[in-house]
Specification:
Order of helices and strands: HEHEEHEEHHHEEHEE
Mean pLDDT: 84
Distance between the termini: 42 Å
Oligomer: single chain
Number of strands: 9
Amino acid sequence: MTRPPTAAQLRVIEAAEPETGRITGTDAQLTRLVALRLAFRHPRPPHDHFLTPAGHRIREAARSPEPEPEPAPAPSSGGVFTARLGGEPDAVATPARAREVRTAWQGLLEIRRMTHPDGATDRPCAWERGRLTHSAALALEAAGCAPATGTAPGYRVAETPQPEAVAVRHPDPAALAACASALEEAGWQVSEHTEARGGRWLLASPRRT
């Protein structure tokens, strides 16, 4: 960010819809917030604007009665939300991360609604099928499943040779079953398989209907 938002831009941020982060304002205000990486323009008509995780942090700070310590940033590139595939050494569960995940998931549901002809949000869309591992990982984290870190076990999402399918692994059978339920709730088809060395893993693919 080159400089803090103006008072008018802050009013736009503070007036964002609580669940979706959708904002409204003048073209100049919205363009400037995008340039500051506090908002993004939806790629599909009607091209609404939504707060980024950084924008949500400013909104939360403005609504908080007392200042809070600056949270540790989530793994990202250029301020853009990044789903955790598992194995990231600096993956830390914080309230700020939970807000970012919630915002990203709500944004994904909005993409589903806007891109499916019937407006359905119960199954993945073409945007997700082009980003299989990250879309599956977001569904898992949004459902409360924990990714593997450098110090703790958790899920790991990986590509597979099979088209439109990802592999999900977890050393805990009960947690693996929870991952399967989370993906099914998010609109994925899931089957469980046994590896040669005896471990269990999930094969998940986006449901189309």
